[in-house]
Fold these 2 entries.
Entry 1:
Amino acid sequence: MSNLIETAEELLQKNKVNLIIGYEKGTGSKTRPVFIRKAEDAKKLVFDNNQKQNLVVYLLRSEVKKAGKTAFVATVPALRSMLQLASECQIKDKELIAIHARDNQDVIVFEDFKSIEEFLTTADTGFTAVESELLAKLMAMTVSERFDFWTSEFEKCIKCYACRAACPMCYCGRCTTECNQPQWVAPASHPLGVFEWHLMRAMHLTGRCVNCSECATACPVDIPLNLLTYSLMETLETGFGAKAGMKADAKYALSVYKPDDKESFIQ
Amino acid sequence: MEIERKLYKNSSPDAIAERLLSAGKKVTAPVRSGKIVDLKEISKPSEIEYNALTSVQSAKKVAFPKVDKVVEYEVLKDTVNTLEVDFEAFPEQVLFGVKPCDAAGFIPLKAVFNWDYADQFFLKRYEKTTIISFACPKADEYCFCTSVGGNPGSTAGSDIQFTRTGDDEFLVEIITPKGKTVSALFEDILVPDSSNIDKEKFLASVPKAFSFEEVSAKLSSLFESPVWEEQAIRCLGCGACAFVCPTCACFDLQDEKNSGKGTRLKLWDSCGYSAFTVHTSGHNPRESQGERWRQRVMHKFSYMPHRLDVRGCTGCGRCSRSCPVDMNIKEHITQIDSL
């Protein structure tokens, strides 16, 4: 563990950052986000494989921006979320430091987007075996079976919006669901309202979701929300050669016009 | 009424649930689905999961559903036709196998929905609900009922309570007249409690973490404390805590309408949301997550006891278990208690 803690201590001692967002031991068997401002508190930091939250979710918050230069402990999906935010002009290069811990003793400090981009070219950013299996299972269903699957999952939804709150890509100041003049999405957690909400959110994440699975982890009623974006990710990758969160200056696949587009209808 | 004590000699309470279902009651009980256990309407006793510590959600939904129709309307040229809700059509229902902290949750809910306006949507449903709780044989580190006036065998809020006292035996306490009426459906399979069983021996141990009264008194001077921003720094601002809470009663009224016809709905709301009670002018009375967290704690531990003479928390720990970032209320209140 010393390496992660020593790295954090050094960053704070040398005033390279004012705040470090990492993980500490929580209650029960949980690991939770911790905000460290003093070098002597860095010893609270832990690394374990239970690290659930994607800490990029905090980076755009006013409390964090007010703190000045910030470092955060980043998993591979978190590094991608960071680059995705950069490509959406939400954060600037060299504004943040990402500390990637592969285990207790193996810590890499990224100070700019370029080094993260290079690192990600060799990192494992594909679906895990479990994810591929789930996707295959979903795709093997008939449309009506799939509809039944989601109907039964969505029955549980209470619209607490933990999925939205935990998602680093859901950073809209005012979400469409909160607009009632006009009302775009039925606000109730009845079947129509739940379908509208989750499908709208999945569509909004097309080409932006980095598959951190935070939405599913945060869901109190255990809806596998991460499955919703899997096939969108695959479509974007195979159809547009686009993968979210790999390049800080990437142009969003769905809003770019290229004269040499392979589809003839658009030319 | 004085509590009547009986014994039920059987390894499983399924026969009791069967009697309730046969009598045409709508029965809601803990049911396992995938990794979680939650409260659901059951159609047969075998669906019930008796061994879960708690259900993810509280029992409030049987009287305060997540979506509740208030009125249907049609706007015509010079009048509005309304179709009111028929309160008498609410079904006779039984909550079966819930925990004492679920039953206790109805005490503050009743107070809130009877405060300045008698909310018939809640009250009529509640009137037709009989609560059969099961005393807790186990607890976890998120439980703290003993700090908020409850205990694993508390009968407050329950109409009937079952306590497992052996592999083939339950103590059955019939607590209220409502409980007495429903117990008539299975009284013939109960036997007298001749040995006067000591219920305490069969209950979980839940150490007291803080004193509700002390915390409540302390809070009145802590409005401007930095503790709120400190504790709320990791809060994501979702509504998971409020929606699984047995006492959170805030709701929003929303219309769903289409060309003059519509339905007005009462929907769960949460003070943790950034847009909660934002004024039409754009003014937000609670700009920061710290202020919103303060509202949550103050409401439960200060405003409700002072204004309604009820505790706004039953110590069930659901909010802490469901929180994606481990905002543990027991830990936070204990910290406040030490200030």
Entry 2:
Amino acid sequence: MTELTPNIIPAANAIRWQKATISAIEHNTPRVSSFWFKPAEPFAFKAGQHADIRLTAPDGYRAQRSYSIASAPEHNEAIELTIERLDDGEVSPFFHEVAQVGDEIELRGPLGGHFVWSVNNGGPLLLIGGGSGVVPLMSMLRHRAVQNSDVPALLFYSARIWDEVIFRDELLKMHEAGRGFELAFSITREPARRPVDFSRRIDMPIIADLLKRLPANPTVAYICGSNRFVENAAQGLIDAGLPPPLIRTERYGV
Amino acid sequence: MATRGFFGRHREPDAADRLPPGQHLTHDFPVLSAGPTPRVKTDTWRFTLKDGVRPVATWNWAEFNALPQTKFLRDIHCVTTWSKFDTNWEGVLVDDVLEAAGLDASTPYVLAHAYDGYSTNVPFADLTHGKAMVALRYEGQPITPEHGGPARLLVPHLYFWKSAKWINGIQFTTRDEAGFWELRGYHIYGDPWKEQRFTGD
């Protein structure tokens, strides 16, 4: 893990809380929406990083959560946090039911110095996302697109149903544009829609198939999703011969 | 600054004085790690105590399990804001590891090292006088690989990234050398009661 750290983000100076204004809200899927936050102070970040959000109740009680950034680092006048509604959650229901454009929210970041990628890190780049785990991977792909990079990249994105695929149309367009980007969905509860897609949970045959779609073995792999999903995918990549230090993971906390 | 329309979930009154600021209570045991879970086998497991670069003592799994065993019932606090109360651990106090090695503190700082290359720095004083252990069992069972088994450091009074999973050694260092997450912006010490999450907190 520490053997390979070309893109280590060193400790910054104090990362202060600042006010950010919600400048737009967009519904992605029935349970997922994107919120654009316009920070008061400059917010320079790398693809894959996250921001912390802090909500304060009238009695001073605070709740704080981390959300991955979906937007490209090149567009940081407003950063896009894509938030899945968790029914038993405390912060995500607030965003889905209460938050409106114009609201001021406390935010700080960027945070996370390991699950980051930039075109300078090269590839081939293997991205594996489950559910809303696609969000930090989307930032990497948007960054790659903005940079007109032709670093070979493949996204495997597993969702339960077609209508829960976040950023679906944008990803399909990105795939059509080509430029060394391969896209494979796995829709676990419905039939596959495209010949290149799957309709089951990630397994060894899927991993073998994916690796063949890249021109060479990946030099770095990012996996994000639930713990079970990440464990299966990471172990699968190791069983397929990828050295563990090449694999970076991010798992949903609570 | 109060957030418009936010009132927060029902607070658990019993939890209030046990929850550090900014934390919330969970009843699960979330798994977080920067890379894949290493599969560490107990028949090749080793724990090494180092003074700088010099190894001063090594134990295999059987030898380490033969050291005095201590039980901990502790609350744990993750920097990602979850806390879990009343977790049961069993293992070897760092005090007992040092005693078995016949070693006193040689420097004021240590780095804990792990099988996956992870490391984290802790002042030596935070590991002694019954404050920390190398845990071998959780809730009466061997620690599962995803929670750091076969052995993990347990420093429950600091944020849980300090409790290195898959530990394979402790190294005395002359300076407080930043570990894996500390190099990447996490707080050098990590006291949950002072909310020392990131550099500068």
